[in-house]
Structure to design on (358 residues):
């Protein structure tokens, strides 16, 4: 029997609630399947850890994580710790050294969920955003001089490398070619940003030569927000820089009905390091501890984790269970306009897994 070691890092805020729910659901799934085992170990890293130890995770945290097959991550961010500390101290401290350069963000309108767009049905919105996850605007280059003086200077340098852009472009073309519509949109801002973004466009055209089956086009990121909103059915796979895709994926989540259902995978496609799976929503301190966080994003990302581990039938079973539950409005959490609790949604998904006979 296949057995996988999973590191659970719930982190901050509702991260703790949704990862607990996700672990329960995954254990029920493994039991129902019978063909694989999941061995979870949980780590209490995050803002509470920072307040005690002055660091978000231990110095040897990454060494510890290396032994795992995957990382199941909740959220980081606390009202009383600056965001750049929590982000760079934990999430980016894992993503970047583990070279999880492909961030994959599927978006669909799940059954039973009402998106905010008039005349847009589930069949009109089925996207995967591929976010470059290792460089670009998140490269961490820059600095500040003359702090506090009127002449203070700050730079925030965006880095694009040929190697970095080529590998994400290949990943995106590959993914597009594996999807039925074989359609890819390359997002840049090469009218205003005339160096790095022009290189993106050039590399896209080069890589496209190896994928004659994929139809592709280019969009400027500002115009892309309009196309996503007004003509969602013209899009399928989308590739963009770290920051552009960060912004577009929030828009995508909103157009699909709620940030609470949106999943993401931070992949190291070569598997030199473990990949990391998380909901997009973040720590949501306004609802922390109320038991009403939507666990669906955390369940959906678990399907991506199972696929990455090679357990496709289990991933499909979990997705069917999620969709059966979202189809019932009495099982919607408040972010979807309902009154259900995390507990109720989790129990319903577990029941759907146990009752799934496919
Ligand atoms: C995301 C988030 C993060 C990001 C935040 C928490 C720093 O918005 O995963 O989309 O910008 O990468
Ligand atoms: Mg974001």
């Amino acid at each position: 029997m296949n057995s996988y070691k999973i590191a659970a890092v719930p982190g901050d805020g509702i991260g703790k609630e949704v990862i607990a729910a996700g672990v329960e659901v995954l254990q029920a799934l493994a039991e129902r399947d019978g063909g694989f085992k999941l061995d979870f170990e949980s780590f209490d890293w995050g803002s509470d850890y920072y307040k005690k130890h002055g660091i978000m995770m231990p110095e040897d945290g990454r060494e510890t994580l290396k032994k795992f097959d995957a990382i199941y991550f909740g959220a980081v961010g606390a009202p009383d710790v600056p965001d750049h500390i929590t982000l760079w101290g934990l999430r980016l401290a894992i993503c970047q050294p583990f070279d999880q350069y492909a961030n994959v963000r599927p978006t669909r309108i799940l059954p039973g969920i009402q998106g905010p767009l008039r005349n847009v049905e589930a069949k009109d919105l089925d996207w995967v955003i591929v976010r470059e996850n290792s460089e670009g605007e998140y490269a961490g280059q820059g600095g500040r001089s003359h702090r506090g003086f009127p002449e203070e200077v700050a730079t925030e340098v965006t880095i694009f490398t040929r190697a970095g852009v080529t590998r994400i472009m290949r990943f995106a073309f590959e993914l597009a070619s594996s999807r039925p519509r074989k359609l890819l949109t390359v997002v840049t801002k090469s009218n205003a940003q005339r160096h790095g973004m022009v290189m993106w466009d050039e590399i896209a055209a080069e890589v496209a030569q190896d994928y004659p089956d994929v139809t592709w086009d280019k969009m400027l990121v500002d115009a892309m927000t309009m196309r996503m909103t007004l003509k969602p059915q013209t899009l399928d796979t989308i590739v963009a820089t770290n920051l552009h895709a960060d912004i577009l994926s929030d828009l995508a989540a909103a157009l699909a009905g709620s940030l609470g259902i949106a999943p993401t995978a931070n992949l190291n496609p070569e598997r030199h390091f473990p990949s990391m799976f998380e909901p997009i929503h973040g720590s949501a301190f306004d609802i922390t501890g109320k038991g009403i966080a939507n666990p669906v994003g955390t369940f959906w990302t678990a399907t991506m984790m199972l696929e990455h581990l090679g357990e496709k039938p289990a991933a499909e079973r979990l997705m069917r269970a999620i969709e059966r539950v979202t189809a019932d409005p009495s099982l919607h959490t408040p972010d979807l306009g309902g009154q259900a609790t995390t507990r109720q949604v989790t129990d319903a998904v577990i029941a759907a897994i146990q009752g799934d006979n496919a």
